[in-house]
Amino acid sequence: MLCHSLAWRKLHNVDRLLSTYEPPLAIQKYFPGGWHYYDKDGRPLYILRLGQMDVKGLVKSVGYESILRHVVSVNEKGLRLCEESTKRRGHPVTNCTCIIDLEGLSMRHLWRPGIKGLLRVIEVVEANYPETMGFLLIVRAPRVFPVLWTLVSPFIDERTRDKFLIYGGKDYQGMGGLVDYIDKNFIPDFLDGDCYCGVPEGGMVPKSMYIATSEEEIDKDRSPDGPDNIYHTAYAVKDFPHEVLIQVPQKGSVITWDFDILKGDVTFTLLRCRHAVSSQPHEHHVAGAAGGVGSMQYIDKHWTVGIDVSIVQPPLVCRDGDSIQGSHVTNQAGSYVLQWKYFDSAKGSFDLLSTHKSKVMYYTEILHSEQFKGSMTSLQSCHSSFSQLSLTNNSAHSSITHSSCPSR
User: Fold this and answer.
1) What span, in angstroms and rounded, lies between the C-alpha atoms of 45 and 36?
2) What is the per-residue pLDDT for 395?
């Protein structure tokens, strides 16, 4: 392991990183992490406001490798701060403490390519910076946190997981919370402390900062023909919606979705069928679609809402260019359908260029309740949630983006 790490440092010129590295502008302005004094034992304290991070925006602006390089520089700075603390305190300080603030965490943080990048970061850090974590204090963990933890925790070394302390709500305040590890004078102001914290607040990365190379990289990862083959494309045509059938085996399972509107406008709805659904959908053929099939329909056009199907998540209008992530915790087993319908934003007016066709790229997954090992109870009052990354770029859509989760 040591030989591999030394070779890795030499290959990537890590020993000179702190003297040569200059973070890209997007990271300087929108990466919500930074060093902030020390804990009670002299460990350097790093703060990451993960809930305020626009993961997709950062990846599209600088790419995976730039983010990984920044994380490596953070770890190198941590080692240097440990050396300085050792000299100052007169005893060895060999690891750091990290506070991860999850205020604002939502399903948009579960963007699949972003999770892929996070797992890569974990792999590199654990391989090359072992035993450098003293404590990792996760604060203001919202109800969606068990979903993220389920996806990520299997890839974290067991000894590292033992150093995690998770606080929901305001549990981090008072005895047993942050004051057990950090002097009260150094607790950040945004965590109800008295100390000003200069860590960037994060926020949405403007689309004007996106670069073509990272866009192409993401599109490759998300293409149906890409290496992971997890994203699909479909067309929602007038009178022919695209539908995805999800069979939920038991109450408490979580349906998650992530989709981009590549062309046109759509309405997105989640429905539950009250009758048996055929596994052989009606296929609508569209010129230019992969295999010629543009959309599939599972719901019989003669079915009636309230009798044959129930609306689980009310229709959400999604505009051209929108990126939507969301989830629903099911309260019963059965057949669920994710439906994208063509939305005519110019209805009532004559549009010579209208093709009555919208294009969607999507990924959906079901997380079974047993995967959460008892943690599902924390999700039960957050039955469904939406997140729209384009809000800051198109404020007119804010009225259609909503959540029943009070933690967001």
Assistant:
1) 5
2) 34
